[in-house]
Amino acid sequence: MPDTLSAMFAVVFEYQVDPEQIAPFEATYGPHGGWARMFQPAPGYLGTDLLRHESAPGTYILVDRWESAAAYDRFLRAAGERYTAFSESSRTLYRSERSLGRFATV
User: How high is the pLDDT of residue 38?
Assistant: First the structure.
């Protein structure tokens, strides 16, 4: 079986979401939401995973997967203004956002 994680890079965030915003947050930040659709055409984008904490309602981990840090950085350079605008327009969907960092498989 091939090792599909051998060249993966991920950008990871934690979100705290109020109960009344859960449905729109999941729709926007989920694997088929607006964020994923913005990334979709970018070379090197592998997908987005949205994980909901089982015992802490409103706590989420978002993982954007890329082939490499370089692919992600190229996307940011090419679409930086669009990324920033979408980020600003989505801020009402969560109480807090915390970057957990940039991770690469070993």
Answer: 95
